[in-house]
Each structure stands twice: as C-alpha cells, then as structure tokens.
Amino acid sequence: MKLIITPCSTFLLFSAASFSTLVNASVESNHMFADKVVYVPQEQIVVTLKANLPEIAANAWIGIIPADIAHGDEATNDSHDLQYRYVRDQKDHVLFFTAPENDGIYTLRFNDTDTNGKEIDYLTFEVNRQSWIENSQLKTDKRIYHPDEPVVVSFGVPGNFTERGWVGLIPSAVEHGSSSVNDQHDLAYQYTRKEKSGEFTFAAPYKTGKYDFRLNDKEGAAGIEVASVTFTVSVDPWLEQIRFKADKAFYSPGEPVLISYSVPDTVKDSAYFAIVPSDVPHVDERTVDSHDVSYKKIDRKYQSTLQMSAPSKPGTYDVRFQDNDSNGYELGYVSFTVRAIEK
C-alpha cells in the first residue's frame, strides 16, 4: 500500500512549521527504495532497485515528477519529468538523481517503457531547506561599532549547503526572508562559494542605526535567507574615548582659546573643532558649518592642544567637535563666555 502525500501550500521562513515533513512516508515501495525522504536542493538522491522487478522494456525509466501531476500514464510523466534515468543504466541496482532546485513535494515514478507505457511504481519525497536554516549561523566579533569601523562576521553552513550562498549587509528595517529583497537593499556583500565556514571583513555603515548580516542560499526570486545577526552602528564608542576642554570659562574678545583634547584615531582626517554661538541648535554638522565663527582641523593629531581665538562679539559660545566636515556627527561640546571689555 502506497501513502499519497499532497504538497503543502505555503512555506514560511524561520518557523518550526516552515516546511512540511513526510514523517509517515516510507523510503520503500514495491520495486525500489530511496536513501531518505527529505533532501535539500541539488542533493544527491540514491535509488536502489529491488531484485524482483516485473517484466519491463529495455527502455523502462524512472523520472522525477512534481507530486501534483496525475499518476498512471507514462506519456504524462514524460511531459512533466524534471530528470530521468533509464533502468538499464543502473549499476549494482543503483541509480543516482539530483534533487530539484526548488522546494516542494516530488515523486520518483517507475515507468515500464518510454513508448506510451504505464507507471508501475513510485516513491514520494520532499525538497526543502529547513536543515539549512537550522544549521547555518552568522556571528559578529561584537555588537556595537562606530561608523566605518571594520566588522568581522563569521559564518558556518552545513556540508551540503549550496555553492551560491552570499552574505549581505542589510538595514534591519528591511523585511526578512527573501534573498531577492535582501539583494535590493544590501549595502555590501560577499559570496561564500565552496567554503563551509570562514570570516569576512566589512566596513560598518557610516549612518548610525541597526543593521543585519544576512546569509542567503542563492540570488534570485527562489533564494531564501537562512541566517542573520544584528548589530548597531553608534557614535557611543567614540564618545567613550573623547575628552576635551577649554583652558578658561571666560574670555575677552580676540583672546586666545586653548583647547586640549584626546580623540580616537578612528575619526576621519577631516575632524575639526568649531566655535559656534551657543544658541545654534545641536542638529548636524551642516548646521555647525553654516554658523561657525571659526574652526580648526585636528590634522591627524589625536592628542594635542590647539589655539583658536575668542569671537569679537560678546556672548556665550560652544566649542563643538565634529567627526568630519561633510555632514558628520557632533561628538561633544564645551561652552564659554566672551565678556565685553569695560571702558
């Protein structure tokens, strides 16, 4: 008695019920048996023929046919087969097939001839990528990075994983699951090729926020995401290392302002200090750039003292440190006052 399995209608990624499971199916039928019932795409299928085969033609064949195709008629099977082997090509009663590339329920159908014959036996099997999801992993060397910091991501995949896999850097807000969607939004990528484990080095995005590395089995509409890891880009690692101060709290117009500082050597070469009226909003570097009274770049001196001049107009001012001069980030400030000279 054969067990007929109908295809599942949908596959939902990252769920324990993502793929149907043929737990009640047998690897054995009347005239043949397979090495298992669930395969990953492109995996080898081993079919062994039994010794008690019925009388068949020299051109009898076994083919892989989608399970939803009607059974019984060899011509119907012939018009829908994805792959076939002639029984006469068996060696030691064994034939080898390759699992289809797309997920789904399939059958191995035994046909007594390839000339208007009939189907005399079949086995049902499934192709899915659940084992890839369960056994693939990504890991970063830490969780928080400053803008443009090197990020080391390590990956590990099963031995039967595809050679077309790729790891992409994707904003976390992008929906998970689809390789094609990830491909549309990736900021950088690397191919895993034949490697089953290894490391890649990416540059963290300059824009702060949350990002993922996502491992995909292949490109294109049929590709899926099999693993991901999230990390954060923040200026906090810089803020923890930045120290600076002005030598006084009050100055006369034009008086030298000495700023002693220590900043990380990972800020951009164009990082600078600017003197800005204190009422200018702390919004972005462009705002600072359009309102600064004066500025000085650090010129790759990451621990030093630089001299600027107090503005000529009395008032309250800030010394603001910017990580670069192209719409960068403000990384701290100190305030001081310029007093009018009494006559």
Molecular structure report:
The chain is 9% helix and 40% strand. The protein has 343 residues and is mostly beta strands. A hairpin with a 7-residue loop joins strand 23 and strand 24. It starts with 31 loop residues before the first strand and ends in a 5-residue tail after the last strand. Residues 1-24 have low confidence and may be disordered.
Could you outline the blueprint of secondary structure elements for this entry?
Elements lengths: L31 E3 L3 E2 L4 E6 L11 E6 L7 H7 L2 E4 L7 E5 L5 E8 L7 E9 L2 H6 L1 E4 L3 E2 L4 E7 L9 E6 L7 H7 L2 E4 L5 E7 L5 E8 L8 E9 L2 H4 L3 E4 L3 E2 L4 E7 L9 E6 L7 H7 L2 E4 L5 E7 L5 E8 L7 E9 L5
Parallel strand pairs: 2-8, 10-16, 18-24
Antiparallel strand pairs: 1-3, 3-6, 4-5, 4-7, 7-8, 9-11, 11-14, 12-13, 12-15, 15-16, 17-19, 19-22, 20-21, 20-23, 23-24
Summarize the structure.
The protein is mostly beta strands.
Q: Can you tell me the residue ranges where pLDDT is under 50 for at least 5 consecutive residues?
A: 1-24
- The appropriate CATH architecture of the largest domain is Sandwich
**Strand adjacency order, main sheet:** 2-8-7-4-5
Helix share bin = under 10%
Strand portion:
35-45%
How many domains would you count in the coordinates? 3
Terminal residue distance: 111 Å
What is the H/E string?
EEEEHEEEEHEEEEHEEEEHEEEEHEEEE
Radius of gyration: 33 Å
**Mean pLDDT over the full residue set:** 91
Q: Write down the oligomeric state.
A: single chain
Q: In total, how many beta strands? A: 24
CATH class of the largest domain: Mainly Beta
Class of secondary structure makeup: mainly beta
* Approximate shape: rod-shaped
Number of contiguous helices: 5
| CATH fold naming of the largest domain | Immunoglobulin-like
What does the largest sheet look like?
A: 5 strands, mixed
